[in-house]
Write a structure and sequence with these properties.
Length: 180
């Protein structure tokens, strides 16, 4: 569940349903000098509201889902290191990619569009890398440093974007195939 607040208005909604499986490739409790490594596969089902919006405001407040079947593959690594002052520092990192199937869109959807939009959108593939470290400073204070790089390849659209496009399809209204 999530809550969206926009311009003094708020709406709560359920998002997409996700199911996943994790494979523990290396356990750092058994191999003390190596980090823990896991591989995750997660499938997202578009069960959250992603279409049928009457205007842009309704889209911003009401979109709880992505509108696409999406599969995520993620490699995660983590290591607990002992510091010279008898404390522990946690270091972790991950690399993931997320791939979505082409999705039919009609009207204003989570992808954007206008009341007369009609076509198919292919969300771009996501690549993401994350690195983080946590170091306890005192009993109730921990220093956390985290960095993330994300890149989404261009999304494609085939069909009629309609008039007065918004969101990801802004400024296009002719019948065509394009890269967004």
């Amino acid at each position: 569940a999530s809550l969206t607040i926009f311009d003094g208005d708020a709406r709560a909604h359920l998002g997409d349903t996700r199911v996943g499986i994790k494979f523990q490739l290396l356990d750092d409790r058994k191999h003390k000098n190596l980090p823990a490594i896991a591989f995750l596969i997660r499938q997202y089902f578009p069960t959250g509201k992603s279409s049928g919006f009457s205007n842009t405001r309704d889209q911003i407040l009401g979109a709880g889902g992505s509108g696409a079947f999406t599969t995520r593959f993620q490699l995660i690594t983590m290591k607990l290191l002992k510091t010279p002052w008898d404390s522990f520092m946690s270091v972790r990192g991950s690399v993931l990619t997320e791939v979505s199937v082409p999705t039919k869109v009609k009207g204003i959807t989570a992808f954007g569009g206008s009341p007369t939009t009609d076509g198919t959108v292919k969300p771009g593939t996501l690549l993401q890398a994350t690195a983080a470290a946590e170091l306890p400073i005192m009993e109730r204070l921990t220093l956390v440093l985290e960095g993330q790089f994300s890149y989404r390849f261009g999304s494609g659209f085939n069909g009629d974007m309609g008039d007065r496009s918004v969101g990801n399809m802004e400024g296009r209204s002719e019948e065509h195939t394009s890269e967004l």
